[in-house]
Automatic annotation (TrEMBL):
Natural source organism: Fervidicella metallireducens AeB
Subcellular localization(s) per the UniProt record: Cytoplasm
Record's cofactor remark: Mg(2+). Can also accept Mn(2+).
Function field: Catalyzes the formation of acetyl phosphate from acetate and ATP. Can also catalyze the reverse reaction.
Gene3D superfamilies: 3.30.420.40
Alphabetized UniProt keyword annotations: ATP-binding, Cytoplasm, Kinase, Magnesium, Metal-binding, Nucleotide-binding, Transferase
Cited HAMAP family: Acetate_kinase
Protein name per its UniProtKB record: Acetate kinase
Keyword set includes Transmembrane: no
Required co-factors: Mg(2+); Mn(2+)
Single GO cellular component term: cytoplasm
Reaction equation(s) it catalyzes: acetate + ATP = acetyl phosphate + ADP
Binding annotation for ATP: 14, 208-212, 283-285, 331-335
Length: 398
């Protein structure tokens, strides 16, 4: 069984073709600048040189057509014809409260996704466009939707309800949804395997640390809390997002600084986080370099970032009544030994001890906890595409 995984952005498209008989990637690639001058496809077939195709693509349908042509091309293709693709798995950011698991995409599901656009106006529209483009080009191939929010639908009500008038939840759906769910689900399952335990018997804190970042409390295989909220703005300090703050700052800036709602929203999402604190960059490599050269604000940005993650790990250990493992994943979590070390400092009282030598690793699944650590500390590269493919296979076979 071969599953094509599609992840559509507003002007980009990532894809992987995975052979689910052995879970090996047959080809993967990236389409950039869809609908913009300079459209380009970078196609990477397994075992062959990458292929770069520069060709105008006015919309996502053009982009997906180019991807499909590349997959069956006589020189750099990996399948003979389209019939070899058994199903397509689509990453969709937001399904609201509609779905707690991945689903076959039919007319009712598409209507529900359309109704959730107001909850994710930047993400759901391109996701929907990608699905419709695939349907037009592959009308007889089943499509599955895998939602970033679905994994967190197991949160108890006391974890997802905000202390606002309850009718705002009933009327507008204002509640904690959480994101990065596919990543949190994948690494928690790998962590349970590394612990040698059934995931139903595990209490795991997963830390998805990249330019966007979130933590989740995964108890018995279910998300019971997560740091992102109604939008991906809440929680940890991130590359350009502020994370947790006093909401009265919004009205203060509107009243005192004369900022509009749109300007405040732009400030919190695109000019804050470690970029806002450091004044250097949203790229942690740049900030770490500046800190090493004595830039105090750059060091402060790193300190704020690691402090927030450390605080959430402690909170989630309390929420679960204990913790068996802490997992670091995503770009920074997988590739920054310094960040992992700083986060774990001060968590020894929970039984979390990191081995500095073992921790000197990047991008590999490894146990970096010190000997005698009561809580395991794992680095686990995330693989959202494989998780999407697994869910797609399960839905199609089920």
């Amino acid at each position: 069984m071969k599953v094509l995984v599609i992840n559509c952005g507003s002007s980009s498209l990532k894809y992987q073709l995975i052979n689910m008989d052995n879970e090996k990637v047959m080809a993967k690639g990236l389409v950039e600048r869809i609908g913009i001058e300079g459209s380009i496809l970078t196609h990477r077939p397994e075992g062959m040189d990458k292929v770069v195709i520069e060709q105008p693509m006015k919309d996502h349908k053009d982009a997906i057509k180019l991807v499909l042509d590349a997959l069956v091309d006589s020189k750099h293709g990996v399948i003979k014809d389209m019939s070899e693709i058994s199903a397509v798995g689509h990453r969709v950011v937001h399904a609201g409260e509609k779905y707690a698991c991945s689903v076959l995409l039919n007319d009712d599901v598409m209507k529900a996704l359309d109704e959730c656009i107001h909850l994710a106006p930047l993400h759901n529209p391109p996701n929907i466009i990608g699905i419709n483009a695939c349907k037009a080009l592959m009308p007889n191939t089943p499509m599955v939707g895998v939602f970033d929010t679905a994994f967190h639908q197991t949160m108890p009500k006391e974890a997802f309800i905000y202390a606002l008038p309850y009718e705002l939840y009933e009327k507008y759906g204002i509640r904690r949804y959480g994101f990065h769910g596919t990543s949190h689900k994948y690494v928690s399952q790998v962590a349970a395997d590394m612990l040698g335990k059934d995931i139903k018997d595990c209490k795991i804190v997963t830390c998805h640390l990249g330019n966007g970042a979130s933590c989740a409390a995964v108890s018995g295989g279910n998300s019971i809390d997560t740091s992102m909220g109604f939008t991906p703005l809440e929680g940890l300090a991130m590359g350009t997002r502020c994370g947790d703050m006093d909401p009265a700052i919004v009205t203060f800036l509107q009243g005192t600084a004369g900022m509009s709602a749109e300007e405040v929203n732009n400030l919190m999402n695109k000019k804050s986080g470690v970029l806002g604190i450091s004044g250097v960059s949203s790229d942690f490599r740049d900030i770490e370099g500046a800190a090493q050269e004595g830039n105090e604000r750059a060091q402060l940005a790193l300190d704020v970032y690691t402090y927030r993650v450390r605080k959430y790990i402690g909170a989630y250990a309390a929420a679960m009544g204990g913790v068996d493992a802490v997992v670091f994943t995503a770009g920074l979590g997988e590739n920054s030994p310094e960040t992992r070390l700083e986060i774990c400092k001060g968590l020894e009282f929970l039984g979390i001890k990191i081995d500095e030598e073992k921790n000197n690793v990047r991008g590999k699944a490894v146990d970096v906890s010190a000997e005698g650590s009561k809580v395991k500390v794992f680095v686990i590269p995330t693989n959202e595409e494989l998780m999407i493919a697994r869910d797609t296979k399960e839905i199609i076979n089920g």
